[in-house]
């Protein structure tokens, strides 16, 4: 089968690597996602084990879409019985670009007409549309008058792992937190420290990697993915697969994982999030300034998502925090590694260290960067 895994802009290469590890073949990066092929297991593995994918789409077909009638004809030619089980509701989410039709709502309506007419002919009954909370989402993209239709096999955003019910200011999306960790090559075989941890997302994702807790396990067990409601879903095989994954979970991380923040309120939130994520036994939480000395002797990855200073007048303050943090890394963590997500090139410059890896990503409407530093002695720029 073929699938298209969507991701945050900039994460495509990392996601392609991850999907290859999950058994995908013919992996090809595209804008905001990755195309891949594989056996039926790939759909399961992409949902349950991918830390970077935002959603998994299964391509249904493409066709001309230059005018309202060709859109209707393209939709009418699809065998919708395969994707819309009897009695289930559906909705269409469209995006348009560089095409004669430039109204998403109008496009969705024409596609809906094609779906309804085809199903009425094939089944003798009209399927129901539920625009807010359908059983099945059909994703449509019209680009340069070419229409692509996909079945949303996820039905929900995969970054919603379920553990982060509370957050502090500017929490990092779970998938991007994992991109920081995987971009730095974190596998759980070293210690991890986030000294500005907020609601704890980076350390919690790191602990799940270290304990081999699949990010989509809870959602899968709750039957929350759309593919679990499809007509041809192999419930027995899927339950066996989940059981095998569960048997591989480690009760505790092997190395030290620490989250710290100067705001005691967010540390309490991080602790509760960790409990919900099943990693509370692996993480030590601390309330203090990043400059506080924490005993780290073993090989350590320091990860951080510092304040970006998005509001007017806050940029200089953010720069000085990052500059002080760069100095701290240099004096306390020589021989270790660091990975950060920063809101601009100016902030990368403020660290005062030369990155060994730089990944431009879109985050919080900013052209952000994931940067990785090898903190060997003499890595200071000036
Ligand atoms: C952008 S938030 C981190 C969000 C976090 N990654 C999450 O997902 O929730 C930045 C955090 O840095 C903390 N912070 C700012 N300056 C600090 C300092 N000097 N020492 C320790 N923490 C600091 C703030 O309290 C805030 O929680």
Helix content: 25-40%
Largest sheet: 8 strands, mixed
Q: Which word captures the global form?
A: globular
* Overall tally of domains: 2
Structure description:
The chain is built from eleven helices and 15 strands. It has 382 residues and is α/β, with parallel strands linked by helices. The chain folds into two domains: 151 residues, VC0802-like; 165 residues, Vaccinia Virus protein VP39 (Rossmann fold). The strands form two sheets. It has an eight-stranded mixed sheet with strand order 2-3-1-4-8-7-5-6. Helix 3 packs parallel to helix 4 and helix 5 packs across helix 6. The N and C termini lie far apart (52 Å). The model has no long low-confidence stretch (mean pLDDT 95). Bound molecules: S-adenosylmethionine. S-adenosylmethionine binds next to helix 6.
List keywords for this structure.
about 375 residues, alpha/beta, VC0802-like, Rossmann fold, 2 domains, 8-stranded mixed β-sheet, 7-stranded mixed β-sheet, 11 helices, 15 strands, about 25% strand, binds S-adenosylmethionine
Strand and helix map with partners:
Elements: E1 2-6, H1 12-21, E2 25-30, E3 33-37, H2 40-49, E4 55-64, H3 68-76, E5 89-97, H4 104-123, E6 128-129, E7 136-143, E8 146-152, H5 174-183, E9 191-194, H6 201-211, H7 217-221, H8 235-247, E10 257-261, H9 264-277, E11 283-287, E12 300-304, H10 315-332, E13 337-342, H11 345-351, E14 357-363, E15 366-374
Parallel strand pairs: 5-6, 5-7, 9-10, 9-12, 10-11, 12-13
Antiparallel strand pairs: 1-3, 1-4, 2-3, 4-8, 7-8, 13-15, 14-15
Bound molecules: S-adenosylmethionine (SAM).
The site of S-adenosylmethionine (SAM) has 22 residues, from α6.
């Amino acid at each position: 089968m073929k699938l298209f895994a969507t991701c945050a802009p900039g994460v495509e290469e990392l996601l392609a690597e991850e999907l290859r590890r999950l058994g995908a073949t013919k992996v090809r990066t595209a804008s905001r996602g990755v195309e891949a092929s594989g056996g039926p297991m790939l759909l399961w593995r992409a949902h349950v084990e991918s830390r970077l994918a935002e959603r998994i789409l299964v391509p249904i077909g493409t066709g001309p879409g230059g005018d309202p009638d060709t859109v209707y004809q393209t939709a009418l030619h699809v065998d919708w019985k395969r994707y819309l089980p009897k009695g289930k509701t559906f909705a269409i989410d469209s995006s348009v670009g560089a095409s004669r039709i430039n109204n998403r709502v109008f496009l969705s309506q024409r596609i809906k007409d094609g779906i309804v007419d085809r199903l009425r002919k094939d089944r003798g009954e009209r399927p129901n549309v539920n625009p807010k909370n359908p059983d099945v989402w059909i994703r449509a993209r019209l680009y340069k008058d070419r229409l692509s239709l996909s079945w949303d096999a996820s039905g929900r955003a995969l970054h919603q792992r379920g553990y982060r019910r509370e957050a502090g200011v500017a929490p990092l999306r779970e998938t991007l937190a994992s991109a920081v960790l995987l971009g730095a090559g974190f596998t759980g075989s070293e210690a991890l420290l986030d000294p500005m941890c907020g609601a704890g997302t980076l350390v919690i994702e790191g602990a799940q990697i270290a304990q081999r807790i699949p990010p989509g396990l809870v959602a899968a067990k709750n039957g929350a993915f759309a593919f679990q409601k499809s007509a041809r879903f192999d419930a027995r095989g899927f339950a066996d697969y989940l059981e095998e994954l569960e048997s591989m979970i480690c009760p505790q991380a092997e190395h030290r994982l620490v989250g710290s923040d100067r705001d005691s309120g967010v540390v309490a939130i991080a602790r509760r999030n960790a409990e919900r994520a099943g990693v509370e036994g692996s993480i030590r939480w601390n309330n203090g300034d990043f400059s506080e000395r924490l005993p780290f002797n073993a090989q350590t990855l320091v990860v951080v998502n510092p304040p970006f200073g998005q509001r007017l007048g806050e940029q200089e303050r953010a720069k000085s925090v990052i500059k002080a943090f760069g100095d701290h890394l240099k004096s306390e963590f020589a021989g270790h590694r660091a990975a950060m997500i920063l809101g601009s090139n100016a902030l990368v410059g403020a660290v005062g260290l030369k990155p060994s890896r730089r990944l431009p990503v879109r985050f919080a409407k900013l052209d952000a960067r994931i940067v990785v530093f090898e903190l060997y002695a003499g890595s200071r720029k000036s």
